[in-house]
Amino acid sequence: MNRARILLADDHPHLLEAATTLLTPYFDVTGAVRDGGALVSEALRLKPDVIVVDITMPVLSGIDAVRKLREMGSTARSVFLTIHAEEEFMAACKAEGALGYVLKTKMKTQLIPAIWAALAGEHSM
Q1: Could you tell me the mean pLDDT of each successive run of 10 residues in the chain, 125 residues long?
Q2: Domain 5-119 falls in which CATH fold?
Q3: Do residues 40 and 67 make contact, with C-beta atoms less than 8 angstroms apart?
Q4: Which of 4, 35, 74, 115 could form a disulfide with 58 if both were Cys (CB 3.0 to 4.6 A apart)?
């Protein structure tokens, strides 16, 4: 059975490293990018099953990058991993089709279940 392919997007290298370490036993982490522009190009190139994306990034925000990918026909599901706990951020992510929303402080316990839910087409927001 093929493992789900995950693309990570966050502008903090230590977070990318921690997420890669957390996810690698369960998923195929195909790449990690540090800005929204790179996210768009790598998502189109790698065609991941799920994109784990931060909201606040250089070039394009995670929300704008996910919107652009959706407009370009990407079928990758998105799970936001962020520090933003405010409802308006969650609503904006959901409006762009996000299936998951995990606070970085809860990454170790909530990210893997959120990815599994996204793969099943279920919301975990």
Answers
A1: 92 96 97 97 97 96 96 96 94 94 96 97 87
A2: Rossmann fold (3.40.50)
A3: no
A4: 35
